[in-house]
Amino acid sequence: MLYQLHNLSAEEQTLVQRSPIWITLLIACADYDIKEEEIDRAKEIIHIKSFAVQNDVKNLYKNLDEHVDEEIDFALKSLSADGAERMLFLEQHIAKLNDIFPKLDHTYAKQLYNSLVSLATSVARAEGGLFGIRKIGQDEAKYIHLPMLQKP
Q1: What is the pLDDT of residue 41?
Q2: Torsion (CA) 88, 70, 145, 48 in degrees, nearest 10
Q3: Least C-beta-crowded within 10 Å: which of 72, 76, 102, 128?
Q4: Beta-carbon neighbour count of residue 84 at 10 Å?
Q5: Three-class DSSP labels, 79-122
Q6: What is the pTM of this model?
Q7: How many CB atoms lie within 10 A of CB 82?
Q8: Sign of CA dihedral 74, 122, 65, 92
């Protein structure tokens, strides 16, 4: 268990630990079509953040990096085949972090929030664009700032 999460329930700890996966799927599903490039890019980013991040959130990514494929598979199995239902589920699931942020150390909560927004933006850019133009699609742009979350 990450020491930053010690005062959370087991369910809340799991939600925080899987939050990068849920954010990845939110962005990947924004256009109702999950693209392998976005999932692969998210795996790369999680791996990079596991050693490159210079704050306590690094430990979250380090733990996740060890079994990211299994976590993504588990999350995908829990999603509906219907795009609209899938997006609603993801938004509601991620919004549960709003109740958890106040229970965390304020600095850690801010670091986690900023890290998740950064992850969302990076995953959105994974699909690319033509010569670097419109790298973030219109559907994804609605979600990269994670509007369902309140900044701690």
Answers
A1: 79
A2: -170
A3: 102
A4: 9
A5: CCCCHHHHHHHHHHHHHCHHHHHHHCCHHHHHHHHHHHHHHHHH
A6: 0.88
A7: 11
A8: negative
User: How crowded is residue 110: how many other Cβ atoms within 10 Å of its Cβ?
Assistant: 16
Q: What share of the chain is helix, strand, coil (3-state, %, to 5)?
A: 65, 0, 30
Please give the Cα distance from 150 to 148 (Å, whole number): 7
- Could you tell me which residues come within 8 angstroms of residue 112 by beta carbon, excluding any fewer than 6 positions away? 16, 19, 57, 60, 101, 104, 152
* Segment 71-125, tens digit of pLDDT: 988 888 888 888 889 999 999 999 999 999 999 999 999 999 999 999 998 888 7
For residue 60, the SS3 value is helix
Contact (Cβ atoms closer than 8 angstroms) between residue 119 and residue 76 = no
- Report the phi/psi class of residue 127: left, alpha or beta, with left for phi > 0 and alpha for psi in -120 to 50: alpha
Handedness of CA 108, 144, 79, 65 (dihedral sign): negative
pLDDT digits (tens, 9 = 90+) for 19-70: 999 999 999 888 887 778 778 877 888 888 888 777 888 889 899 999 998 9
